[in-house]
């Protein structure tokens, strides 16, 4: 990969676009794998069809995550648009959807069980976190002056 004049040219274009070094390494890696996947054909000879085949291979055969698929897609779009200056009219750019995991929420009984096994300041902090929705760092930074007992208010500082 180091000796390739083509990849050296890609590096040069990446650097003139002021991309970070880690982006450079990532893009070079994906472009190299794309070329190897297509039996070392020059990217100028390939287009959207070949990109789609490569991305399908990554998703179906290699079972890579959505963010990895998007990373590969971004590298190949950069290659065609910025390096080769070839429009990808025949390719529909659809990034893989990244699913957000839903948080696990305790039931009321589970919450009561956890709180009943805590004592002292730990019980107080856990109750505050659960009851008020404070973040852990916000709770840890609380001081007596931040609590207004008359108005039942807590002042949360950034």
TrEMBL record:
One of its GO terms (biological process) is DNA integration. Keywords: DNA integration, DNA recombination, DNA-binding. GO terms for molecular function: DNA binding. Residues 1-84 form the Core-binding (CB) domain. InterPro entries: CB, DNA_brk_join_enz, Integrase-like_cat_sf, Integrase_catalytic, Integrase_recombinase_N, Integrase_SAM-like_N. Residues 101-158 form the Tyr recombinase domain. It holds the Pfam family Phage_int_SAM_4. This is Tyr recombinase domain-containing protein. It comes from marine sediment metagenome.
